[in-house]
Design goal:
mainly alpha, 2 domains, single chain, 10 helices
Length: 207
């Protein structure tokens, strides 16, 4: 492909106007040749099996980090253990986990009341509401912003951005305040999980 592009460039230069300067002809030749090389290199990279595997693992990391089944505390370790760049995994996991509050809050505001008429949903929502109240209720009443942040930050099954969003919805915390508290808690949690997983992996590899 590179040779073909070079031949095309040479043919094109031969048909250039005789008034064109030698310097302009060489510059154009270099430009087209370099563009052709970059095109072929990028084509090879994007079709490389390793690149496709990396994209698949990043998608899995994103989906795990935005899901209620562990959030980024599961997604980030998954990506790092599977050999992805820790900084890239951290960025993807954190970004996905930060999306939880705006997306889930929107769903609660627009669909929660409508779905309460269905018994299975109502039963489950009451169960989650009780869990949120028992887990973070006292902390929010006593410490407010910081209580919600710490609750989200702690990596336990009953904590995280989803439960924090439910708690902020129940206690009617202002959107901006809730978003900042949850985002700060998620950021600290993701940082701890990424650092802990990376150091653990390095330690195991040294043994």
């Amino acid at each position: 492909m590179v040779a073909f592009g070079t031949l095309c460039c040479e043919s094109w230069l031969e048909n250039c106007s005789t008034n064109a300067s030698e310097l302009d002809a060489k510059t154009l030749f270099l430009f087209f040749w370099l563009s052709n090389v970059l095109y072929n290199k990028s084509y090879d990279v994007f079709l490389h099996p390793f690149f496709n595997m990396m994209i698949a693992e990043l998608v899995h990391t994103f989906l795990l980090s935005i899901s209620p089944f562990g959030e980024a505390r599961i997604g980030i370790p998954y990506g790092i253990v599977n050999g992805l760049n820790p900084l890239l995994v951290f960025a993807v996991g954190l970004g996905a986990n930060l999306l939880v509050y705006p997306v889930f809050k929107y769903l609660l505001d627009n669909f929660d009341a409508k779905l309460q008429r269905y018994r299975p949903y109502k039963k489950q929502s009451v169960k989650l509401a009780r869990r949120a109240k028992s887990g973070v209720g006292k902390s929010i009443k006593k410490y407010g912003f910081w209580g919600l942040m710490v609750f989200v930050m702690i990596p336990l099954p009953i904590t995280g951005a989803y439960m924090g969003t439910i708690a902020s919805h129940i206690f009617k915390i202002k959107r901006r305040k809730a978003f900042l508290a949850i985002s700060l808690g998620v950021t600290i949690s993701c940082t701890l999980m990424a650092a802990g997983t990376y150091l653990s992996k390095m330690g195991i590899e040294l043994i």
